[in-house]
Amino acid sequence: MLYSLTGPQSEMERSIFDGAALAVHEINAGGGVRGAELEFAVFDDRSEVGLSVAGIDHLCRTEGVDIIVGGYTSASRVAMIPAVHAHRALLMYPTYFEGEETDHRVFYCGAAPNQYLADYLGWIAGNLGRHVYVVGSDYIYPRVLAEAVQRLGGRWDIETVGNRYVPLRETSFADVVRDIERVRPDVVISNIVGLESTTAFYTEFHRAGFDSGTLPIAATVTTPIDLEHMSPEVGDGHYMVGTYFSAIDSDANRAYRRALLEVRGQRRAHAAQVGAYNAVHAVRLAAEVARTTDAAGIAEALLGIRFDGNPEGLPFCFRSNHYSAHPSYVGRAVGGEYDVVAEFAPRLPEPWWLSRDPLFAAL
């Protein structure tokens, strides 16, 4: 497993690691893999993309690992893939992201944009307004999503009236908020990544006199980990899209939340964490089918497994393109969590939805 367990991204990535570690605990409590205990090695990249590559080398060369469950930012994933190939390993990438990629050594355990952004844009247009201001961190995920909003927004008469990027870990948002005041959009779509930046933006936004009633934020990356660092008057009432929220009403989710607290002491649950949880369970199922832990055998078997304990609300499985099926939800922030206010049917994953007409067919 490879996560940022220290450094600026550590609070978020430790919570993702909790999902993966919980799955290991459950597997071993149930008898392990083919009668043997599932063991794992951990590398901390200290929130530095360059160390993610070193982490792959260490895990594969020194620890003898064939399968890596890890990574969070798209920058880390892109950096790791050449090293994954060099070691003939597999990467189980846990989180939803910008798509526009397929790789035979990567299994994408989170959603592609057509699985969460398409319905979200329609919901925003129908419930919050059609004049949107987009703000995001300056790297691949926010830029691709902003392009998606601009290119696809016309389907719902959505107009992008402003678009700003800030450096990763930026904490000064006065200029951005002044520009929002000048433009006066109906809604702000936030693709800001990182605890420090997200908290700073929401706080500055509130200080300027905005709240969810006067100008709502519709986020794609603001998790309960971020909300926990905001006062209720700053975060409450704003919106977030996700393939998972802790408020999902299902036996599988209730069991997951209970075990997450009892085993890992973690109260906050979110989509990337669930992706890591599903990834480990998927590898276990694949190992049982393949009767090997060799990367090639696991990769082939992963395409035929089905994990019924997925807290998202439907069985977890992979398509032939290594992407996975997901529902999507809109949540409204209340007291550091999200209440589900809209639910959409699962969509087939379409990685290249910006490069050609996306598939918007429901499963």
One letter per element, helices H and strands E, the order comes to: EHEHEHEEHEHEHEHEHHEHHHEE
- Please tell me how large the radius of gyration is: 20 Å
Strand order of the largest sheet: 7-6-8-9-10-11-12
Q: Tell how many strands the DSSP assignment holds.
A: 12
What CATH architecture of the largest domain would you give?
3-Layer(aba) Sandwich
Average pLDDT: 96
Enumerate the spans where pLDDT stays under 50 for 5 or more consecutive residues: 357-363
Content of β-strand: 15-25%
Count of helix runs: 12
The major sheet is characterized as:
7 strands, mixed
Total domains? 2
Write the layout of secondary structure elements.
Layout: E1 2-3, H1 10-29, E2 43-44, H2 49-62, E3 67-69, H3 74-86, E4 90-93, E5 106-108, H4 117-127, E6 131-137, H5 140-152, E7 159-166, H6 174-183, E8 187-191, H7 195-207, E9 217-219, H8 224-227, H9 232-235, E10 239-242, H10 251-264, H11 271-290, H12 295-302, E11 326-334, E12 337-347
Parallel strand pairs: 1-2, 3-4, 4-5, 6-7, 6-8, 8-9, 9-10
Antiparallel strand pairs: 10-11, 11-12
